[in-house]
């Protein structure tokens, strides 16, 4: 399975569209691009793998692995990238501004259900991040 995240960059946040086989799963919000600096930047464009992860804070969620010079890059609910994210990716149902979204938990559950179904079949889930042309 390959998830395609197409980003649009703004000074106040990064918005994205997450698709699978050409169909929209959800929108995304992230921090702005700041040269991949920990806790203040979105991650670089490229190809990554996704796995299940559990923590007390987020319970079951998704982790983006093998990000250069970064760790614990997660998919988790958030509606304001600048206030709630430290480099992670937040699924949102609707974008409401640069780095801002609505109904994140609903979008996160939709994404998690889809990805967990694939991972439970022992299949690989890839994330390809590109810029909107």
From TrEMBL:
InterPro entries: DUF5675. It comes from the Bacteria. Residues 5-115 form the DUF5675 domain. This is DUF5675 domain-containing protein. It comes from Polaribacter gangjinensis.
